Amino acid sequence: MSARTSDSQEQRPCPACDSQHVRRAFEVAGFPHVRCRGCGSVFVSPLPGPEVITAANLNPDYQPGLWELEERMRAEARARAQIMQARGCKRVLEVGCGAGFFLEALLELGIEAEGVDPGIHAQQAKARGLPIHNLWLDQHQPTGPYDGVAAFELLEHLPEPVEALRWFHRFTQPGATLFISTPSASGLPARVLGRRFPMFCPPDHLELFTRAGLSTLLQRGGFRSISWESFSNLDEATLQRSFERFVVGRSAPGRAVAGVLAKVMVQPARWVDRVGLGTSYEVQAERV
Fold first, then answer.
1. Using one digit for the tens of pLDDT, what is the confidence trace for 12-36?
2. CA-to-CA separations, 65 to 61, 70, 236, 284, in angstroms, rounded
């Protein structure tokens, strides 16, 4: 959705469960965060002005290392597209389609697909010939209902995520599949690192949901969750960078220690995902 907000000094209700009962959590980069006393989700409150949110969403430097991760992201996109195919999806909209890897994977499977995203990567993907509308979601006018919607790493950016879900509900068929991913406020990294958790990065991310909060949000939007997965993408190289940044520093001895810690922690990081406490959620839901 476009960045439409109320007075930037107004305290927000919880974007997940709509509760007014919150407590102060911490501040990141000058943005105060609060925690919902109901569902536990953490969010920026008050919201920054719409011009700040729009600038963050259209930042040309967003995902600077995107092309270094292309191989992994394409493999992930192919796996997700196969899930949509298995769900019987024939016409899919991806919101926040970025560089278009998921759209390409859908099209390769013979699924009718289009994207909506005003950002720079989506503009470049459209120039490659992909069916992308360089618009905000509420500016898009579908020609017919979808039986699948994908929104990967999107909801945490939106000042009113429930409005996006209600848009998805309005333009999908009964039983349609919603496939999303979003950072987790319930995971072990968020709990251990607190304000230092990299996913707390305002004004880019405006909220991080707990599992309870995201479940409630989906229900408010007219969807029922049917599958939950935890994922972190914490390979050895990523773990080493994280230990250097948050634990031991980037001196020569620090890098050496970080390398050892990364080797030791690869398998435990996989266990954390298996028990549902990773960095992010991947959720399949059904329109009700």
1. 999 999 999 999 999 999 999 999 9
2. 9, 9, 17, 27
Cα dist from 146 to 113, 169, 181, 199, 217, whole Å? 9, 10, 19, 30, 21
Say how many C-beta atoms besides its own lie within 10 A of residue 258's C-beta: 22
Phi, psi of 276 (to 5 degrees): 85, 20
| Residue whose C-alpha is closest to residue 223's, from 181, 285, 179, 164 | 285
Note the pTM of the prediction, 2 decimals. Answer: 0.89
- In terms of Cβ atoms closer than 10 Å to its own Cβ (0-12, 13-18, 19+), residue 23 is exposed
Kindly state the DSSP code that residue 209 receives in the 8-state scheme.
B
The token duo for 8 is 């930037």
The answer, yes or no, to whether residue 7 has pLDDT greater than 50, is no
